[in-house]
UniProtKB/TrEMBL annotation:
<dbReference type="GO" id="GO:0009252">
    <property type="term" value="P:peptidoglycan biosynthetic process"/>
</dbReference>
<dbReference type="InterPro" id="IPR004101">
    <property type="entry name" value="Mur_ligase_C"/>
</dbReference>
<dbReference type="GO" id="GO:0008764">
    <property type="term" value="F:UDP-N-acetylmuramoylalanine-D-glutamate ligase activity"/>
</dbReference>
<feature type="domain" description="Mur ligase central">
    <location>
        <begin position="109"/>
        <end position="287"/>
    </location>
</feature>
<feature type="binding site">
    <location>
        <begin position="111"/>
        <end position="117"/>
    </location>
    <ligand>
        <name>ATP</name>
    </ligand>
</feature>
<dbReference type="Pfam" id="PF21377">
    <property type="entry name" value="MurD_N"/>
</dbReference>
<dbReference type="GO" id="GO:0005737">
    <property type="term" value="C:cytoplasm"/>
</dbReference>
<keyword id="KW-0131">Cell cycle</keyword>
<dbReference type="GO" id="GO:0051301">
    <property type="term" value="P:cell division"/>
</dbReference>
<dbReference type="InterPro" id="IPR013221">
    <property type="entry name" value="Mur_ligase_cen"/>
</dbReference>
<keyword id="KW-0436">Ligase</keyword>
<dbReference type="InterPro" id="IPR036565">
    <property type="entry name" value="Mur-like_cat_sf"/>
</dbReference>
<comment type="pathway">
    <text>Cell wall biogenesis; peptidoglycan biosynthesis.</text>
</comment>
<protein>
    <recommendedName>
        <fullName>UDP-N-acetylmuramoylalanine--D-glutamate ligase</fullName>
        <ecNumber>6.3.2.9</ecNumber>
    </recommendedName>
</protein>
<keyword id="KW-0067">ATP-binding</keyword>
<comment type="similarity">
    <text>Belongs to the MurCDEF family.</text>
</comment>
<feature type="domain" description="Mur ligase C-terminal">
    <location>
        <begin position="309"/>
        <end position="422"/>
    </location>
</feature>
Length: 445
């Protein structure tokens, strides 16, 4: 019998992880990347005698695949992907491929914002008492962990792009943190396509599985009304009383699941801001479902350190706080950041705009922002949106200069906030690179 041929498009973290798992499971594996494969990944492929190519796609070698795993970064619109589909070759995501090779309990977390924090926080609580891995859109690839670690439980942070190519993937517990317009360039600029993509996380769930979601998010609530799911629903809310799920009452989080209730004070949460109360509710609900002790959940929520590049306090210089929120790549994320500012703020914003509407930020800009520094190749839209609201608005193409300007403008007691509301690719490699450059520039002041 001939070996099944697995072709992998994209030689990054998910691609190389899938290649290793595929080889171990008896596939004939070929990795093809249109760009350059990073040296460390190349060495892994060579060491494991896996065939690869970069800076090209050899169609003849790709179109004879039995199954194709494509990197989440490659859009469906690409001609090669269309050809693969026309030939009837199944296209799957790494999450779909790897999940077939594990019997672990899977917690899948998606949403426009808050998914990294919620996934990291959930993992932080569960690992106190369970054997659990953290993967997906974060850290080591899921496929590689299935191969090397074989955890009994996984917390997966899953993007809409990863959900687009699932067929049978079914998490025991799914979480949707929120849904706001993002990445619409990949969904024909139709918000409903993006919403449907997020909801694929629950499409294979049955009543024995759980869907945890934000009941204050109208987009989610309306979609559930019109497209009911099979899952057992556990909503969370800051404003409503929830019978089964989580809600806030007198500064306490109250979680009820099948008559079992836990109460957590929010006064000692390490993460500040309303959105983080929601992230804590989602994580604590998962932990309660998986029978983690109340005491453990409470302590974990109180000692969690947060995620790099997400409202990360860098330094205080001359009583000015410098905050790195480089992970805010859309308007809604920056909304949360500005909402949580408790002092006059010098705001560094800009980058690649994905069709942003800045109106929802006007209130906070009027209330809290004293100066705006635009850090992007094209800043016209930002000047149009905010130029009349602040006394100082300037632009630059250099992080070091942006930080120096902020240093000059900020006075004792102010905040300097990097929260770009945009993608980073015009001036930086990615949001991590942008955040690290900010931190370096602050430390060099």
């Amino acid at each position: 019998m001939n070996k099944q041929r697995l072709v992998i498009l994209g030689g990054g973290e998910s691609g190389v992880g899938t290649a290793l798992l595929g080889k171990a499971k008896g596939y004939e594996v070929f990795v093809s990347d249109k760009g350059k494969i990073k040296e460390n990944y190349k060495q892994v492929l060579i060491h494991n005698t896996i065939e690869w190519e970069d800076e090209q796609h050899s169609k003849s070698k790709i179109l004879d695949a039995d199954v194709v795993m494509k990197s989440p970064g490659i859009p469906d619109k690409v001609a090669l992907v269309k050809q693969i589909r026309e030939k009837g070759i199944p296209v799957v995501s790494e999450i779909e491929f790897a999940s077939k090779y594990t019997n672990a309990t899977i917690v899948g977390i998606t949403g426009s914002n808050g998914k990294t924090t919620t996934a990291s926080l959930t993992h932080h609580i569960l690992k106190q008492e369970l054997n659990v891995g953290l993967a997906g859109n974060i850290g080591d690839s899921f496929a590689k962990q299935v191969l090397d670690e074989d955890f009994e439980n996984y917390v997966l942070e899953i993007s809409s792009f990863q959900l687009d190519d699932i067929k049978d993937f079914k998490p025991k517990i799914a979480v949707i943190t929120n849904i706001t317009p993002d990445h619409l360039d990949r969904y024909d600029y139709k918000f409903e396509n993006y919403i449907a993509s997020k909801f694929k996380i629950a499409m294979n769930q049955t009543k024995d599985d759980y869907l945890i979601y934000d009941a204050d998010d109208e987009v989610i609530v309306n979609h559930l009304k019109n497209h009911p799911v099979q899952s057992t629903l556990l909503p969370f809310s800051l404003v409503k009383t929830i019978e089964n799920g989580a809600y806030l009452k007198n500064e306490n989080i109250i979680i009820t699941i099948e008559k079992s209730q836990i109460i957590m004070p929010t006064s000692n949460l390490t993460l500040e801001g309303k959105h983080n109360v929601k992230n804590a509710m989602a994580s604590a609900t998962v932990a309660h479902l998986l029978k983690i002790r109340k005491q453990t959940i409470r302590e974990s929520l109180e000692n969690f350190q947060g995620v790099e590049h997400r409202l990360e306090e860098v330094l205080k210089i001359n009583k000015v706080k410098y905050i790195n929120d480089s992970k805010a790549t859309n308007v809604n994320a920056t909304y949360f950041a500005l909402e949580s500012m408790d002092a006059p703020t010098v705001w560094i914003v800009g980058g690649v705009d994905k069709g942003n509407n800045y109106e929802e930020l006007y209130r906070f800009v009027n209330e809290k922002v004293k100066a705006i520094i635009c850090l992007g190749v094209d800043n016209k839209k930002l000047f149009d949106a905010f130029g009349s609201m602040v006394d100082i608005i300037v632009e630059t193409q250099f992080m070091s200069e942006a930080v120096k300007i902020a240093y000059k403008v900020a006075e004792s007691g102010d905040n300097v906030l990097l929260s770009p509301a945009c993608a980073s690719f015009d001036l930086f490699e990615n949001y991590e690179d942008r955040g690290r450059q900010f931190k370096d520039a602050v430390r060099n002041l």
